[in-house]
User: Fold this.
Amino acid sequence: MKIRLDHVVKTFQTFRAVKDVSLEIESGELVALLGPSGSGKTTILRMVAGLEFADGGHIYFGDQDATDIPVRDRGVGFVFQHYALFPHMTVAQNIAFGMEVSKVKRDKAAIQTRVAELLHLVRLEGLGERFPAQISGGQRQRVALARALAVDPKVLLLDEPFGALDANVRRELRRWLREIHTKLGITTLFVTHDQEEALDLADRVVILKDGHIVQQGTPEEVCREPKSAFVMKFLGDANMLPAEVRDGRAHVDGAVIEVSGIADGKAELYARPVDLDWAASGPGIPASIARVMDRPGGRRVIATTGSGVPLELDLEPERAVKAGDTGYVTLRRATVFAA
Amino acid sequence: MRRNVLPGLRLSLGVTLLYVSLIVVLPLAALVFKAASLGPQDYWQIVTSSRALASYRVTVLAALGATLFNLFFGLALAWVLVRYRFPGRRIVDAMVDLPFALPTAVAGISLTALFTTNGVFGSILDSYGIKVAYTPLGIMIAMCFTSLPFIVRTVQPVLEDLDPALEEAAQSLGGSDFAIFRKVILPLLTPALLAGVSLSFARSLGEFGAIIFIAGNQPMSTEITALLIFIRLEEYDYQAAAAIASVLLLTAFLMLAVTNWLQARALRYTRRS
Assistant:
């Protein structure tokens, strides 16, 4: 089911949570709404679900205007950050709930068969008789997903689905959700503030800030061509160096980089830690190493430039550097935004 | 004993145990002892005398009626207080505790004044042929009044803590309001409702002050058990008073035991495997 948001607005008391958002989600697509807290991403998701009503604009499911359809008739599956499993029901009863209260009557055997299928899909066979309090967080979230899928929703909506889980479980569930999406092909929209999660999982990432969409595109597009300093910074660690643009070139302390489409004047140069390198002799930006942090995949170096700007560099594990060394930071690549 | 980080275990435990013994266990033991001094035959004769039986009947039936009424009304009141914001909500909320704070005799006198045939409510009801004062119905109303806070105050916090996401989830799964109430909200409130019911019922069984004014106190029809005990005391028949009191005591105990068991059953889902 294709979803289309057309100039959607939502205000809470005096706070404009969502300001004129238009967005299209193709049928079968897996889309992430990514943004810091307060960016309106959860409000958008809840409006698509029908858990909040838009103050302005329209939401279409396919060709149907769904703006005013209440949640129970909208045919969406919603997965909550804190699972929202019914604590007094077993896992199987939780999954069966939607089928039992549905206007479409199913007999007991059909419900049981479907519950067994879903337990298999979420790999929780044998846990049907447990209560939510008796299973782990990751298992609870899988039950929540099975429960949402039980009613054959046209759209699956997930609100920070892995936010409450530890890093390892999170990665595993991410991969697994992708598999389920591939298998079922159901249009899915999920909210996250974790860029890694959005980039790992989604076909398309929609980045929000203060109730606006600031950029959307495939993970590749948003990573390679961030359109603003905000997106650059939000998607991952980024170093900022004040720069001066003259005749299509950005000048930083001791480095020059070609730029296009930026007017002469003050600018900001952004570079990821992997975009920077370290050399004992020039040319480059003179700097001294303040600290070296070792990580499994390499060495993160914190260096301070001559003008006092702190920079983070990712170097290969073999590189012999230590705090106190002086040398030069070189730029492999960088993105420049007008200041 | 396991080492405990918090200080003062021995002192606080000692003081509370002593207090519980002196205030609760000792009087109850004295009561049972006094009743037991009768011997089985006399005891049985006193507790099954027709006047005593009639008093149990009216007390238990009125208490059941009052508790049932409070179950619905108390739940509704708690629901309104938690779910909706309306002007005067805090005043209503504060008024719920009034039956606790008010001297029961005051409540009894006010209710009697309202419900006698020339009272404000009583005169209206009388024109429909309904008599409240000096009938079992009056006893029930007095019990309703004094035991209402129990249900409201046990249900209210549970209702407040109910995660709104549960209802949203149930809605997104297509549940109607009624289905959500019956299958999600009510089961989650059941333990609290049971606790409130048992307290409300126990309180109604033992209520004295509020009832004697409105009850009429006719032996065999509107004489509650607590009053019968009082009458026996006034006659210096301590043993008979203790015997009848022991029946009330036993009933209250049974009631608490049964509701505790039901509550534990209703809460079994919270146990980790």
Notes: The radius of gyration of chain B is 22 Å. Chain B is about 80% helix and 0% strand. Chain B touches chain A at residues 163, 165-166, 168-176, 179-180, 183-184, 187-188, 266, 269-273 (CB under 8 Å).
